[in-house]
Amino acid sequence: MKRLQNKIAGSRLSLPTMAIVGVAVWMLAGAISQWLWLQFACFVFSSYIMVELNTTFVLLRTYSRMVSCAFIMLYCCSAFLFPRADCGILALCYAASLMPFFHSYQDRLSTGWTFYAFLPIGIASLVWQQVLFFLPVEWMLMVFCLRSMSWRTFFASILGIIAPYWFVMLYFIYAEDWETPMQHFASMADFSPIFAISEPAATRAFWNTFGFQRVASFLFIVTLFTIGSVHHWRTKFLDRVNTRMYYDVFILNGIAAIVFAVLQPQYFDLLLTVLIVCTSPVIAHFITHTHKRITNITFIAILALALALIVFNILMPLKATT
């Protein structure tokens, strides 16, 4: 029996409709008035990459554009990310790294794909150097999930990370500016909030500065991530082996982003963009491949909460300026 969630998931109108909604949300959030063209362009290209990711690697067993629809919805639920160019660049770079990363599946000689997978991460580290802390996670995924780790691919990943710095350093050498690169890498040692865990009062005070918008969006996305992850683990035997490995990549990176956000909340917005990319496929898998009455009710509740968050996150800044 096809329920509402299955009809929407399999409809060819879902993606165009969601794209129109996404553009409308960006316009209402001030894409024109605040000159957020770079951020909006990153959002558009990230959404397109999610479409190609689903099509190329067949993340869903039936025809569905729900992966990209989920990405658009979740990003629009976090409208406070719109003004931040670094969040848009990180989302684009992380999504772009997944395509060549998955192409290296079970190929220990795939130095080219590995280089291109880590090149966007290197570019992202130019605007947010702490993204390099995800490298051990990516290498672990190459060993246990993609089974593509070898000495060749390991050094290819290193070359992909440092390649952007070759070009950037030319400018700093020409300008004889050594202080800026040093400060860039020195900031990676900033772990101060992690020590507040032993002081509950200080931790609560720190999180209270985030406001309801961020906390509500974070809890909503984490809930969807949990629902999708549990569904995948319960039904993964229905997917092909390589598809299971791709979802394990999403889930383990998502878990790493959640842990990182809790331990280092000063990078909350940036880590939320990574979590959005990781959550989109797993919740899309849940919506597309479940067809029970309770899951249909869950789907309707997800849509209602997403709409409420979108409206709330748009109206709050408008109210603050009046």
Structure description:
The chain has 322 residues and is mainly α. 75% of the residues lie in helices and 0% in strands. It has helices at residues 4-10, 14-28, 37-57, 66-76, 85-103, 111-127, 135-144, 151-175, 179-186, 200-208, 211-235, 241-263, 268-289, 293-321. The chain is globular and about 65 Å long. The N and C termini lie far apart (49 Å).
How would you summarize this macromolecular structure in one to three sentences?
By secondary structure, this protein is mostly helical. The chain contains 14 helices and no strands.
Unreliable parts: none
Share of helix, binned: over 70%
Average pLDDT number: 91
Distance N to C terminus = 49 Å
Written as H for each helix and E for each strand, in order along the chain, the element string is: HHHHHHHHHHHHHH
Shape: globular
- Discrete helix count: 14
Gyration radius, rounded: 20 Å
The total strand number stands at 0
The percentage of residues in β strands lies in: under 5%
Give the biggest beta sheet: none
Helix/strand class: mainly alpha
Provide key terms for this protein:
75% helix, 322 residues, 0% strand, mainly alpha, 14 helices
